[in-house]
């Protein structure tokens, strides 16, 4: 049985956006081509590829992992199951970092994953000295490819948090989107999170242990009045502010994402 692009649109079990993305991926065409070639009949091989992608999506696999890419801060990023899928909420962390990064400043992205934060910073601010680190060698390989893909100049380090920074020059800003979901949280077994690397999602504890490590370890690696900016869970802002204040940070505050949720908290060292 032959299927045209238009017929598949009508018959798809997926929502319209998922169908369009997967069909573009299966055919190797863009969205405009789907419109201009709506009566094109798929070959048997094209139909086989599309059907296999649909099955993966219906099984719950995230679209970003199926097509191997996600846009973040207006840039394309390679993603796979070694890294978290970049999310729009995290763009707030990038914007706050850019606002606090002086000309020719130094910035550190802790736990870079796909490299989304570091690459977005380096691409936007060509003058900046951007360093990114991660404990996962697989994640760093993805991040390096994303830096190359987007023409971004980033220094990558294989490090368990601050371990590889001994002797490094201090930074104007340290930004991090660490694991902050508590062990046993029901979200870990729902939706896209089922497919993402668990170690990048949860600290296997109360959701605050990585945040505590970052807060305690940052001061020696920040310039005077340097900022530490931390993304966290929707209900963690007050606790993160308390941790920052107790550790002696000043100007402690939280910022809301587009949904009105306190998504990033931070403070300055003396």
TrEMBL record:
Catalytic activity: L-glutaminyl-[peptide chain release factor] + S-adenosyl-L-methionine = N(5)-methyl-L-glutaminyl-[peptide chain release factor] + S-adenosyl-L-homocysteine + H(+)
Alphabetical list of Gene3D superfamilies matching this protein: DNA helicase RuvA subunit, C-terminal domain, Vaccinia Virus protein VP39
A Gene Ontology molecular function term of the record: nucleic acid binding
Keywords, alphabetical: Methyltransferase, S-adenosyl-L-methionine, Transferase
Domain annotation Methyltransferase small: ranges: 90-185
Binding site for substrate: 177-180
Binding site for S-adenosyl-L-methionine: 111-115, 134, 161, 177
GO biological process: methylation
Database matches in InterPro entries: DNA_methylase_N6_adenine_CS, HemK-like, N5-glutamine_MTase, PrmC_N, RF_methyltr_PrmC, SAM-dependent_MTases_sf, Small_mtfrase_dom
EC number(s) recorded for this UniProt protein: 2.1.1.297
Residue ranges constituting the Release factor glutamine methyltransferase N-terminal domain according to the UniProt record: 6-68
Protein family according to the UniProt entry: Belongs to the protein N5-glutamine methyltransferase family. PrmC subfamily.
Physiological role: Methylates the class 1 translation termination release factors RF1/PrfA and RF2/PrfB on the glutamine residue of the universally conserved GGQ motif.
Protein name, UniProt field: Release factor glutamine methyltransferase
């Amino acid at each position: 049985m032959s299927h045209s692009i238009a017929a598949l649109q009508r018959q798809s079990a997926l929502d319209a956006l998922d169908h369009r993305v997967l069909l573009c991926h299966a055919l190797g065409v863009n969205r405009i081509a789907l419109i201009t070639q709506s009566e094109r009949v798929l070959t048997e091989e094209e139909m086989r590829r599309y059907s296999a992608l649909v099955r993966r999506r219906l099984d719950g696999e995230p679209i970003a992992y199926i097509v191997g890419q996600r846009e973040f801060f207006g840039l394309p990023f390679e993603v796979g199951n070694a890294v978290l899928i970049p999310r729009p909420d995290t763009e707030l962390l990038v914007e706050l970092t850019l606002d606090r990064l002086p000309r020719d400043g130094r910035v550190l992205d802790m736990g870079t994953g796909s490299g989304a934060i570091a690459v977005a910073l380096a691409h936007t601010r060509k003058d900046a000295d951007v360093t990114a680190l991660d404990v996962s060698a697989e994640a760093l390989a993805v991040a390096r490819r994303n830096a190359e893909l987007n023409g971004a100049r980033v220094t990558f380090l294989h490090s368990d948090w601050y371990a590889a920074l001994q002797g490094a020059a201090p930074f104007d800003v340290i930004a991090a989107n660490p694991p902050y979901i508590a062990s046993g949280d029901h979200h870990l077994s729902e939706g896209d999170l089922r497919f993402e690397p668990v170690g990048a999602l949860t600290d296997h504890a109360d959701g605050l242990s990585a945040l505590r490590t970052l807060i305690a370890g940052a001061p020696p690696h920040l310039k005077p009045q340097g900022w530490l900016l931390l993304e966290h869970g929707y209900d963690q802002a007050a606790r993160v502010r308390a941790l920052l204040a107790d550790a002696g940070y000043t100007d402690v505050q939280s910022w809301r994402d587009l949904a009105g949720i306190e998504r990033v908290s931070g403070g300055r060292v003396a």
